[in-house]
Write a structure and sequence with these properties.
The chain is mainly beta and 493 residues long. 5% of the residues lie in helices and 40% in strands. The protein has two domains: 3-366, Beta-galactosidase, Chain A, domain 5, CATH 2.70.98; 377-484, Immunoglobulin-like.
Length: 493
């Protein structure tokens, strides 16, 4: 087995009728393996695959949420050997439901440990494949957070359609060589099959080179490449008024950053919207995009989950991706257990039924900004509650619902400049803005400059907002983009 043979296999499967992956036997035991019983199950480092490798491989047990086993093969010298599930690989209490899962049932997924058994870090992992086509890596902060996926098919579909979740059904895992681990994965779904190769390095931050060839069984509505998935319940922005929790912020990512083919940097703070939202940012040959956790201050979370250490995921396309759009899907949620944020690239000319489609990109999992620039960055997006104007303040031609925004900007490009002389270039898709201007932040905290604006708009349609700071014709900041729903706050999530 190698990558070329895996592509041959994926191509041959494309021409067969799709067969959904079978569920593991002993369904009653799987029902009982909920979060608590699964937490009791351990895979001892001494039982790892490739125990002498710098990054041994251990396995995830099947359970209530992961019922479809994947096949895992050890790949050495071009030869593949299947790793079989057995009770003796795991440890768990005698009354744990796992005792009723038969040998050979399979695994839910696998992960790479940080060190061999007996060495510091042998109980921790840094790269994991678990569930559908999901995988994730720990960043510099030794934390998991946002995840990546192999492909996104019809995410946020039109009426009468549903999202498709192709799955990795088998993996071929090689021992670490020259500091890198290599994984081959077979993808299968109703609309396509695919062959993937992942080459991952752990230091200085996790970098994964992804190559894939996809074989279309049928044309899809939304073909999402290099998809990223994360969670935002609420942040310091407008979504904070929807929270019913004691913590100031709860999110794994707080914004989408894009570097366009023309070099423009666009920062789009994430929303927990009142209804399903899809935003598209048209581009040609993008330089990169990703979901970032830009807020790195513990006091903004005060949580033992240490959300401030969640990794960014930055997608760096390899080769020319042509025309298309970065699309952002935001799904309403009332809890932190939902991954309600998805971002991906949609080519303008997606592959059609019967076509082959090859792609390559690099994923960076870090905790520092992925793009080096002197331009000022928006480090916080804040807002008041939306409120109805008093009768005495109303006037013809202006909406009666108002909301004030306060943005924080920091960066070398602002050094030595007077914010009150800066140009605040603001555009709105509808509605109007007043009292727009920049000023100093008190004591220079949390950033040197603040930008205030009042937006007057009402009605169900969102307001698309874009803002840049300039000194004359000279650009001082990245582009701040935001989608504002002009609805009076009142619903508690």
């Amino acid at each position: 087995m190698d990558f070329d043979r895996l592509k041959d296999l994926a191509r041959s499967l494309r021409d067969r009728a799709y067969a959904p992956p079978p569920e593991a036997p002993a369904s009653a035991a799987l029902d009982a393996l909920t979060y608590g019983p699964l937490q009791e199950i351990r895979y001892p480092p001494a039982h790892a695959l490739f125990p002498e490798s710098p990054y041994p491989v251990t396995f995830f047990h099947l359970g209530n949420f992961f019922r479809h086993p994947v096949k895992v093969y050890a790949l050495e010298g071009g030869q593949a050997r299947e790793v079989r599930y057995g009770h003796d690989l795991f440890t768990y209490p005698a009354d744990n439901p796992a005792k009723d899962i038969p040998d050979g049932a399979g695994f839910a997924g696998f992960r790479f440990q940080k060190a061999p058994a007996g060495q510091p870090g042998d109980d921790g992992d840094w790269l994991a494949f678990l569930g559908a086509s999901y995988f994730r890596a720990a960043g510099d902060g030794e934390q998991y957070g946002a995840s990546a996926r192999g492909i996104a098919i019809d995410t946020a579909p039109g009426p009468g359609r549903s999202e498709e979740f192709p799955v990795f059904t088998r993996f071929y895992v090689s021992p670490a060589a020259d500091g890198a681990v290599t994984v081959l994965a077979l993808l299968e779904g109703p609309s396509l099959t695919g062959a993937y190769r992942f080459v991952a390095r752990k230091a200085p931050h996790v970098v994964i080179d992804v190559a894939c060839t996809l074989y279309l069984r049928k044309t899809v509505e939304r073909f999402g490449l290099a998809p990223l998935t994360s969670m935002l319940w609420y942040s310091e922005g407008p979504s904070r008024f929807l929270a019913s929790d004691w913590r100031p912020e709860v999110h794994d990512s707080d914004g989408l950053l894009m570097q366009t083919g023309a070099g423009e940097l666009i920062w789009r703070p994430l929303n927990n919207p009142p209804r399903l939202s899809v935003s598209a940012f048209a581009d040609h040959s993008p330089k990169g995009f990703g979901l970032l956790q830009r807020d790195r201050t513990f006091d903004h979370y005060i949580d033992d989950g240490f959300e401030e250490n969640r990794p960014d995921i930055w997608v760096e396309p390899q080769g020319d991706w042509g025309r298309g759009s970065v699309q952002l899907v935001e799904i309403p949620t009332h809890q932190e257990t939902d991954d309600n944020i998805v971002a991906f690239w949609v080519p303008a000319d997606p592959p059609k039924a019967g076509a082959d489609s090859s792609h390559a990109y690099r994923l960076h999992w870090g905790v520092s900004e992925p793009v080096t620039t002197d331009l000022a960055r928006c480090v916080a997006t804040r807002a008041t509650k939306a409120s109805w104007l008093a009768q005495s303040d109303r006037r013809p031609g202006r909406a009666n619902l108002v909301r004030q925004f306060a943005l924080e900007f920091a960066g070398a490009a602002l050094s030595g400049l007077d914010p009150e002389r800066a140009v605040v270039a603001l555009t709105l898709s509808r509605g109007s803005a007043e009292e727009v201007g920049a000023t100093w932040a008190p004591y220079g905290k949390p950033s040197p400059w603040r930008v205030f604006l009042k937006v007057y708009a009402e009605g169900p349609e969102p307001v698309e907002m874009r803002l840049q700071l300039k000194a004359g014709d000279r650009l001082l900041s990245e582009t701040w983009a935001y989608q504002y729903y002009p609805e009076a706050a009142g619903t508690v999530l």
